[in-house]
Write a structure and sequence with these properties.
heterodimer; A: globular; B: alpha+beta; Immunoglobulin-like; 2 domains; 5-stranded mixed beta sheet
Chain lengths: ~550, ~290
């Protein structure tokens, strides 16, 4: 048994085998597929296109902000671009990215299941997403929208003469895609785990997706209700939020953030799950404090529902309710801190490999930490009065969402790329891209903390001349970042044809997805696997598989 | 180092600016040192335990239990320190000193209008004396705006449906930025201006010029112009309830609730008379709706 190495870990693995990619050919075999892996690929293609669109809007904004005067775009165009950047990146990239691409592909395999619990509903989720994206694109082409992604009333209901109705309708539909994905994952995790795969043996990615799904299922309906009320008011003139009609605009902000704050956790919890997987694989070690990391995901999901009004500290709430929400906001920071410390501690006496997914995740820990601690600044009430609605906030949430979620998404894409495609990406290019992304990101967004404290408000098309130096730095960083993002697009496509064949377990990682062939067969496993090891328990898994193969 | 060319702080020009900056610097030091510690730990561990011949497989170790407890409890207490300091400051920012000078600010797409009780009106410009608390009553005529004075570390959203109050006390003379911080449409980034902080004597000189009567006397003219006084006579003979001595007292409404007749109540009763009807009065159907909102 000692002759066994991790690279041999497999259940049944003849080299030339059918897999989910060559099982079936043709257009409709993809568009009507019920295979979670193919749906994951459909999502991968769609979110990539939308990420590029959102990135285009960002790039245009950064170029405009090179000079203090508003000289490249008109004010209206600039306002539409930052609105569309937010809507596209949040509703069409960040929320679906990790759950719908990586979650769809990997989660059922990690559970040892043949598919998700409701394969047809899974396909329906993708169609809802696409309908919503097509409506969104149609609106962008026919004139766009200028309310900011937050659609604050009464601007959005009575003052903006852009396509508010269409865009909120698109976001409304995208919400159902998200709800159905969450529902599907929850049922799958509860009902379809392989024999022996108890809750405490689940990979931490599954725990993170479980927590995410709860938030998707419970918070997204509130967004749907809020958007319906907004559309209703805009079309019929019945007063809900507009004070001229007897409504209350601050009520809208409460309802909007009751979804949109938990939505931050929809974006970042899956990223934390990817981080745990990658760290375990590239340290060859169990995650330090497994249960703490698992339950901190649930704690974040729960506490995330109780902090929405921290977006409203200057918007018109009483000082005492502000105090309660500030207190709870500090509370939600604790489980995030637990994760960062546990990941760091996992490196102790580990076998750390500096391959690309790990580079992204080491970067992720650093950037997520910066994003997290600057959140502490914003929760300090008296300080928030000065920095809220400035570039400090912009920098803070980009550190969480781009430094956190996008870095982890790229880590996950690289980590599972051999599983998804059966091919290795080119390591040297990938490391270069990871470094460019990290450096470009910091150069783009760190100056924005300074800009924010200096008092530059967000959503400004033109700005005071003394802010120019920092804005030029930020735009320079964005150019580096754009190259960093373009590189993987090129070499990953290249690798589809020219990449080295990966084999079932190129990383020597532990987990059911590495115990099947790459790419996996349509039904994921030829035989239902039986799990006899704890998550990330390398020797136990090798023993268990050794026994089955020695039989 | 050319710090003047590369400032990290906006000018400190109010009594609270120093306190806000102190909290900011405290947070930078605490979170900065913890973050750097984490980064150094990651670098050290990832290099020391890098994979190589002889370190192919990690050494499994039972984690010492006290570590988890330590990094739950210690951060929690640090967070509570930040919470208490931040809340103390917030309360200080919310409490308006009694002797404050009154100014009225109105936000509308896309300009700031300031009015002084002595009658001066200014657009995108605000003159105030140094060393005296200034209280600003805020209203919006259309969407939500936010009045932001970076040099005073002060900001407040301006709502269309109620008055809000902010205050500052400038500590140095000069011109400082006024920004709109809540996105409000096309020229949001053009909704900017200057606050001019003056020596008290200069301020008195400025006040002496260019006003068309105090705000109260302007209000009196409007009260007559719109014929409010035909019904709201000063005694019980009028069709409307008397308004003499009303301000600041409690009024009993038709649904038996009691409200304080403050700025918000009076504004609402002018803009939307049906919203709160005083007990014993008919519906104010004949009152003209004066718009706004």
């Amino acid at each position: 048994m000692s002759t066994f190495t991790l690279h041999d870990v497999r259940f049944i693995e003849p080299e030339k085998t059918r897999n989910y990619l060559n099982e079936d050919y043709g257009f409709f075999s993809w568009l009507l597929t019920k295979d979670h892996k193919r749906i994951g690929i459909l999502y991968l293609l769609s979110v990539t296109v939308l990420f590029m669109l959102g990135g285009f809007f960002a790039m245009m904004m950064r170029v405009e902000l090179l000079t203090p005067e508003g000289d490249l775009l008109t004010s209206d165009t600039y306002n539409k671009f930052f609105t569309l950047h937010g809507i596209v990146m949040i509703f069409f990239f960040l929320i679906p990215a990790i759950p719908a691409v990586l979650g769809n592909f990997i989660l059922p395999i990690q559970l040892g299941a043949k598919d998700l619990a409701f394969p047809k509903i899974n396909l329906l989720s993708w169609y809802l997403y696409m309908i919503s994206a097509v409506i969104g694109l149609f609106i962008i082409i026919t004139g766009g929208v200028d309310t900011g992604w937050t659609f604050y009333t009464p601007f959005s209901t009575q003052f903006s003469n852009t396509h508010v109705f269409g865009v909120t309708f698109a976001a409304f539909i995208a919400g159902f895609s998200s709800i159905l994905t969450g529902l599907n994952f929850l049922v799958t995790i509860h009902r379809m785990r392989a024999p022996g795969l108890t809750w405490y043996r689940l990979p931490l990615f599954v725990w993170a997706m479980y927590a995410t799904s709860i938030v998707q299922l419970l918070a997204t309906p509130v967004l749907a209700i809020t958007l319906v009320m907004l559309m209703f008011e805009r079309v019929t003139g019945v007063g809900i939020f507009d004070p001229a009609l007897g409504g209350d605009p601050v009520l809208y902000q409460h309802m909007f953030w009751f979804y949109s704050h938990p939505a931050v956790y929809i974006m970042v919890l899956p990223a934390m799950g990817v981080a745990s997987e990658v760290i375990a694989a590239f340290t060859r070690k169990k995650i330090f404090g497994y249960k703490f990391v698992a339950f901190s995901s649930l704690a974040i999901a729960f506490l995330g529902f109780l902090v929405w009004a921290h977006h409203l500290f200057v918007a018109g709430i009483s000082v005492y309710s502000a105090m309660i929400f500030a207190f709870l906001s500090y509370f939600v920071a604790v489980p995030s801190a637990i994760k960062v410390f546990n990941w760091t501690a996992t490196l102790y006496k580990a076998s750390v490999s500096w391959q690309t997914p790990m580079l992204y995740i080491l970067g992720f820990i650093g950037l997520f930490t910066v994003g997290g601690v600057t959140g502490l600044f914003l929760a300090a009430l008296g300080l928030d009065v000065h920095v809220t609605d400035t570039y400090f906030v912009v920098a803070h949430f980009h550190y969480i969402m781009v430094g956190g979620s996008v870095m982890a998404y790229l880590a996950g894409i690289h980590y599972w790329w051999p599983k998804i495609t059966g091919r290795m990406y080119p390591e040297w290019w990938a490391r270069l891209a990871a470094l460019l992304v990290f450096a470009g990101f910091n150069l783009t967004f760190f100056p924005q903390f300074l800009l924010g404290y200096l008092g530059m408000p967000r959503r400004y098309h033109a700005y005071a001349p003394e802010f120019q130096v920092l804005n030029v730095m930020s735009t320079a960083g964005a150019s580096v970042l754009a190259i960093g993002y373009a590189l993987p697009l090129c070499y990953l496509i290249w690798s589809l044809r020219f990449g080295r064949k990966a084999g079932p377990n190129p990383w020597g990682a532990v987990g059911l997805e590495w115990a099947t062939s790459s790419p996996p067969p349509k039904e994921n496993f030829h035989e239902t696997p039986v799990v006899k090891w704890d998550a990330y328990d390398c020797p136990a898994m090798m023993n268990a598989i050794g026994e089955t193969q020695n039989v | 180092m050319m710090l003047s060319d590369f400032p990290l702080f906006p000018e400190q020009a109010s009594t609270v600016a120093g306190s806000v900056d102190a909290l900011y610097i405290f947070m930078c030091i605490v979170t900065g040192s913890v973050s750097i510690l984490i980064f150094l730990m990651i670098f050290y561990l990832a290099i020391k335990y890098r994979r190589g011949p002889g370190n192919e497989i990690a050494q499994e170790q039972e984690p010492p239990k006290f570590l988890e407890a330590a990094w739950i409890i210690i951060p929690f207490f640090i967070f509570m320190g930040m919470f208490v300091w931040g809340s103390w400051l917030y309360f200080r920012l919310a409490r308006v000193p009694d002797n404050a000078l009154q100014v009225y600010a109105t936000g509308k797409q896309w300009m700031w209008k300031f009015q002084h009780p002595t009658g001066q009106r200014e657009i995108n410009m605000l003159h105030v004396p140094v060393g005296r608390p200034v209280r600003i009553t805020l209203a919006s005529e259309d969407v939500i705006h936010s009045l932001f004075f970076p040099a005073f570390r002060m900001k407040m959203d301006v709502l269309p449906n109620r008055y809000r109050t902010m205050w500052f006390q400038a500590t140095k003379t000069g011109r400082f930025h006024i920004f709109c911080a809540e996105y409000c449409g096309t020229l949001h980034s053009g909704m900017i201006g200057w606050v001019e902080v003056m020596e008290p004597t200069d301020y008195q000189r400025w006040l002496a010029g260019g006003a068309e009567g105090s705000l109260a006397s302007q209000g009196e003219k409007l009260f007559q112009k719109y014929a409010c006084n035909t019904c709201h006579t000063g005694d019980a003979t009028g069709r409307g309830p008397t308004l003499v001595g009303l301000y600041g007292t409690d009024a009993m409404l038709s649904d038996n609730t009691i409200v304080r007749a403050d700025d918000n109540y009076i504004r609402e009763s002018i803009l939307n008379p049906q919203a709160k009807v005083v007990k014993g009065e008919c519906a104010h159907g004949w009152l003209p709706l004066l718009g706004g909102g």
